[in-house]
Write a structure and sequence with these properties.
By secondary structure, this protein is an alpha/beta fold. It has a single domain (45-248), classed as Glycoside hydrolase/deacetylase (TIM Barrel), CATH 3.20.20.370. It is 39% helix and 14% strand. It has nine helices and ten strands. The strands form three sheets. Strands 3, 4, 5, 9 and 10 form a five-stranded parallel beta sheet that branches. Strand 3 (62-69), helix 2 (76-86) and strand 4 form a beta-alpha-beta unit. It is globular and about 45 Å long. The relative contact order is 0.20.
Length: 257
């Protein structure tokens, strides 16, 4: 009887997610053997099936610059200054509290042509939430963004802590979002262990590859100090910075008329 109950419970939980597994997975990529090559990942399922990305077109020298924003540490405005000076688009994945506490920065991101992506309300592990709870988190952020800015939030989502499941990927797809993982990151979020601009510059530039989706954190003083040199070095190597809209739709922006 006990075995029957456990089996029935597991089936009910599985069915609640539309028959899609909610097993916790943590995003990672495998570093390539040679510098400049694109990293791999555990390709046990098709990311494209869920409108999920970790890499762009590897035949093109494109870079997609993204930042995660759980809280503000005083460096986002510095980074925005550099991006504006260098004419570089970026994406900032923000929580609801970040929007509430930093409305001027959010408006500036939008006004200067950057993507503001959805990073949920509470920054909880997505598989810890039911499909209804995850959808509610996404909706709360999007509604608050629209209330403040007057436009819909761009349709991009980054799972907090990179934790996801097939169920959460399906849920975010059903909610109209592309899930954006990454093909480069380093331990830049440790605000008390910043390596300095030189180290940040070397780590990022050494990790560049065609179609790279770079994950950086704007709480990092090292990233803020190195940003201009990172952009200049990437361009000197022939890379071009692109918007996430060009990742999911190479024809973006649509032609006028």
């Amino acid at each position: 009887m006990k075995k029957f109950f456990v089996a029935a419970l597991c089936f009910a939980l599985f069915a609640a997610g539309g028959g899609v597994s909610n097993e916790l997975m943590r995003w990672y990529f495998t570093r390539p053997d040679s510098a400049g090559d694109a990293p791999g990942w555990d390709d046990s399922f098709d990311l494209a099936q869920y409108d999920a990305y970790y890499l762009g077109d590897t035949s093109q020298k494109d870079i997609f610059l993204t930042f995660d924003e759980g809280y503000e540490n005083g460096y986002t405005s510095v980074i925005l200054d550099v991006l504006k000076e260098k004419n570089v688009p970026a994406a900032f994945f923000v929580t609801k509290s970040y929007i509430r506490e930093n409305p001027d920065l959010i408006r500036r991101m939008v006004d200067e042509g950057h993507v503001v992506g959805n990073h949920t309300v509470r920054h909880k592990s997505s598989p810890s939430l039911s499909p209804a709870e995850l959808t509610s988190e996404l909706t709360a952020v999007s509604e608050y963004f629209k209330e403040m800015i007057g436009t819909d939030i761009p349709p991009f989502f980054r799972p907090p802590m990179g934790e996801y499941s097939l169920q959460t990927l399906q849920t975010t797809k059903d909610a109209g979002y592309a899930t954006i993982f990454w093909s480069f990151a380093y331990a830049d979020w440790l605000v008390d262990k910043q390596p300095g601009a030189g180290v940040a510059h070397k780590k990022v530039v050494d990790g560049l590859h065609n179609g790279a989706i770079l994950l950086l954190h704007a709480v990092s003083s090292s990233n803020a100090e190195a940003m201009g040199d990172i952009i200049d070095s990437a361009r000197a190597l022939g890379y071009e910075f692109k918007s996430l809209y060009q990742l999911t739709n190479p024809m973006w922006p649509p032609p006028l008329g």
